[in-house]
Amino acid sequence: xxxxxxIFETLIDTVRRFVHDRLRxxxxxxxxxxxxxxxxxxxxxxxxxxxxxxxxDYGGLGLxxxxxCKVAIELxxxxxxxxxxxxxxxxxxxxxxxxxxxxxxxAEWLPRIASGEIVTSxxxxxxxxGSDSGAVKTRAVRDGEVYRLTGTKRFITNADxxxxxxxxxxxxxxxxxxxxxxxxxxxxxxxxxxGEPEKKMGQKGARVADVxxxxxxxPVANRLGAEGEGFRIAMxxxxxxxxxxxxxxxxxxxxxxxxxxxxxxxxxQFGKPIAEHQLIQAMLADSKTEALAARALVLETxxxxxxxxxxxxxxxxxxxxxxxxxxxxxxRAVQIFGGAGYIADYGIERLYRDVRLFRIYEGTSQIQQLIxxxxxxxxxx
Length: 381
Prior knowledge:
Blueprint: H1 5-23, H2 27-33, H3 38-47, H4 65-75, H5 80-90, H6 95-100, H7 103-115, E1 120-123, E2 139-143, E3 146-157, E4 164-170, E5 180-186, E6 192-194, E7 208-219, E8 223-224, H8 230-266, E9 268-269, E10 272-273, H9 278-306, H10 312-337, H11 339-342, H12 348-354, H13 365-379
Parallel strand pairs: 1-4
Antiparallel strand pairs: 2-3, 3-7, 4-5, 5-8, 6-7, 9-10
């Protein structure tokens, strides 16, 4: 159920001010330290950001998809690492539990996820398994009242901090996704180990690492849904996550456009501000048009999802268009800033690197194209 409009506007205004006044001044520090200050994490918990998508019954804010996307747009106006620190709790790390968990599983975990007491991660990708997510090799073999879980997961966001993993593992001999099941795996179970965080191109402060399971005994009670339902659960989780990421892309694009306007209005060449040169105006016009189109697609799709519509195609289209769009906007921003855009002082080169990841996770652009084409053919146009 949607929040009261006045309460929601207060939330949006609070998040907007938090991003502008608190987070943006810290961007260079987070980049240099590759870490978000603990006190900022505490402030995010106090604002309820870890529980945006979790029902109020479990201590969350219980936002609709449309409301969540509007908040995500605001959060996109700063370095994506800040959002990533709680993004798995809001999205892929919690939504399998929200969608398929038993009442007992939800009662045990969701309140602590919503409060930020624990961080969650979604463990699907493997060293040999990325876009072909139905080909997971991690195995879960039933042994009485536990499953013995063995395998390696790769590029797992927030793995270094996570206390709970939603893990996709093969439980049967059925080929493809039909043999995949989902499990809630606490970090403190025997046989769970976390690799060193990877060195990345961008999004410093957001960590990814391997997660290794070595004969880990996972209680049968920790399985999400029935055996063989894991792939379906994962796809539903990713459908929702794609909309959230699309909204973040819109926010980053709008921030870059505002930065470009401010810079172009002051930077002078040939006796006048570069904003008065038509080729600069053309880049601003292209960026603004694409950002407006992405915003409209994201919000329309989010509203349709809230109405109960099947939005698999539309979510893929939003993720495809918005992630590609923000890459183009970031590239134009570097061009508008010129030499200043290539050095670190203005933060443009940092965002240029940060947004590149959006075209990869939650499904690459090429996977989105396949989904869009498949759903278009299925619907007859």
